[in-house]
What we know:
Shape of chain A: elongated
Largest sheet of chain B: 10 strands, mixed
Strand order of the largest sheet of chain B: 12-11-9-8-7-5-14-15-16-17
Oligomer: heterodimer
Distance between the termini of chain B: 38 Å
Largest interface: A-B, 31 and 27 residues
Number of helices of chain B: 15
Structural class of chain B: alpha/beta
Strand order of the largest sheet of chain A: 3-2-1-4-5
Structural class of chain A: alpha/beta
Radius of gyration of chain A: 20 Å
Radius of gyration of chain B: 25 Å
Distance between the termini of chain A: 51 Å
Order of helices and strands of chain A: EHEEHEHEEHEHEHEHEEEH
Largest sheet of chain A: 5 strands, parallel
Number of strands of chain B: 19
Strand content of chain A: 15-25%
Strand content of chain B: 15-25%
Amino acid sequence: xxxxxxxxxxxxxxxxxxxxxEMFNMDISKFVFLKENRVTxxxxxxxxxETIDECIINCDFSIVLNSNHIPxxxxxxxxxxxxxxxxxxVLLDKVDFKDEYETLPNNLPYSEKPVIAILYSGVLSLxxxxxxxxxxxxKQHSITVHQVLSAQTLELxxxxxxxxxxxxxxxxxxxxxxxxxxxxxxxxxxxxxxxDKCITDCRSSLPxxxxxLTRCDQLSMNEYINNKLKYCVSENIxxxxxxxxxxxxxxxxxxxxxxxxxxxxxxxxxxxIRFHCIFDELLxxxxxxxxxxxxxxx
Amino acid sequence: xxxxECYPSIKTFVVNNHYYCYDAYSNRVFSITKNHLIELNTxxxxxxxxxxxxxxxxxxxxxxxxxxxxxxxxxxxxxxxxNFENDYVHDVIERCISEITLQxxxxxxxxxxxxxxxxxxxxxxxxxxxxxxxxxxxxxxxFLYNHSSDCEIVKISFYGGEPLTEFSLIKNVVEYAETLFVxxxxxxxxxxxxxxxxxxxxxxxxxxxxxxxxxxxxxxxxQNFHRRLLHNGKGTYGLVLRHVxxxxxxxxKYFGQFVSFISVILDDESVDxxxxxxxxxxxxxxxxxxxxxxxxxxxxxxxxxxxxxxxxNTKNSAKTNDEKxxxxxxxxxxxxxxxxxxxxxxxxxxxxxxxxxxxxxxxDFYICEKIIENKNFKLGNIKNGINIDSVLQFMNIGxxxxxxxxxxxxxxxxxxxxxxxxxxEKESFSTERKKNACKKVKHxxxxxxxxIVTDEGEL
Lengths: 298, 459
């Protein structure tokens, strides 16, 4: 099982480690990471080394998550040393958040399929964690899905596929009606500038379940979304607020409280998806063949 | 928890015979009548309970009662004065220190008339020949390395005296940092008086993209009046201008991107004149930051509030960038519709150590370079690290004035940082100092409010 060297910031590493391990084409046994970004993960064991040279020697495979802040000389050095030691290396460009409205696809049978909407408030809400996890979980339960990913998740996924890190085959199908469920993501904007539009679109899709991803340090923002949704969507629709449990520092968009808070969040986060909300309240109803609907006895 | 009696946080004021009121609870400004103003002042003084029981039969009383029922003019719901970032302090210190300022030297080759460190004083900092040792500087960079795991960018600033008197030490520090940090962008900052420059220094600054702030006050008269050479008392205008021109002509791209200017002026000098001077030497005024001199330092003004009051009626028509930023901030706060949470602390205090951790030449940590080195205000030292209790003390200065903070009408706008609350003579935090700062903040905020309602300001 390969040992993977990730040249990235701590934040990007934590993000990466929150993606479901099953979605990757390889079984990652261990991460190799720079000592300057020391971090712990409940999912993976990690070895630390001080230099890129040591990291390459001690890994089987390397990924560079290229943000604007990793010095070019370090990126070059990783790629060069990987070649020198005959090890595979992949350069992934960090996908920047685009503060643009992602229009709801209008050709989907919203009235005929259960719908899960993921509303996220921009750059800090990290929707890809939820999107990838929900996709993988549905796949494991043999539930086919038509998933409309957020722009940045889609771009990231395409890069992962292109570099053969994840399989291009998944549980998603494009053929009309041949899926159990619709999942889509909508961007409320970094300062909720698309919120009204987003809620109007969301209502028109007749969602059965809504995930709201915001950041926990913006209490006013959460309060505002809460009020809007309260009066704009039917009370029968389940709304699950998954506040990102990060504290974001001004201007830098950096996470602190680091791995402790992040891991705690992750556990809570996945628990809520897998065992509490979707299965109990929604998916138990959709795994039946078409035409067979269980009657809820109240 | 809060056992204090709380009253509505209301400010009534009069402009050109029109009456107004600001309600901190709803964060709204109202135009009112004189009789409403009298009623609101009564409400503020006796509190809602006593006011309700007074049962007056006047129109104004019923109007205020109606608004009270609608949720306006409520007392604070604050239960505890505490910085909401207290819980994060440990993590910040362990993993998020993004910047260190090294006091490379105390030596300065200038003697500036507004610089109190240029002469012997009893406040704890004086220019002298002392410089930081390589070991201390290296330990400082190591400290940053070990405490910046969650940062993508780290910043290293060089502070003096005049830091370029120790160019070789700066060079060593930069070269060491470049080998140490692998996955982070390093940004370098330095403020210089512009007296020391040559090809080697300029090449070095350009190579590492140093953000260079040159202290340059303006025209020949002003610069020579303010800033003189220490060893012979001669003016410094020609020397500094020559170096500015040298950088501008020979390192144009670097100059355009990374060089800025700090112009320190006295209260009777004009911002317009300073900007005009820089335009005349073909320097964009956006590169110039104008600060008002006071007796606390050379390159910054600890009490901008004082000057904004002084300058209300002065001839300066141009606003400094700092003033414009303050106005924008004020406007954005006034449009907020949020409620004040039960656990609250006024803004102003930063998380000490997080952004501008200052390492003195002796290896002691302080909150930033603006504080005078005094043992009572140390955050720790390079050997033993940072003391969390000291950090929390700086972050929670609201505890010095709990009752007045609870009932303060300007609480949403407060910007008092811990530095305004220090009494250097008594070497301790001082409630009195804080009260003085409060008065100045309130005065400033009231002026903003007045300019809004009259549309006379630039708001």
